[in-house]
Input
Amino acid sequence: MKLLRKREVFRWCVDFCDIINIWIQDRFNLNPKRAILEAQQDLTSLEELERTIGKSLGIQNGSKNS
Output
């Protein structure tokens, strides 16, 4: 019961933010959600990308773990 309530609250928050994003997009011709995601990607360092992608692929220090 408690988990279901948390999901409902989370879903409501996501839906509410989407509504705000659509309103801003229609009103001001801006997409703040996209701008934030692009800025976050721009600020991600190459080392962090290599670490996280390498971990997902099972690659460490240039050699593949078998």
User: Anything to note?
Assistant: The chain has one domain: 2-64. Strands lie at 59-60, 63-64. Helices lie at 2-28, 32-43, 46-57. The chain has a mean pLDDT of 87.
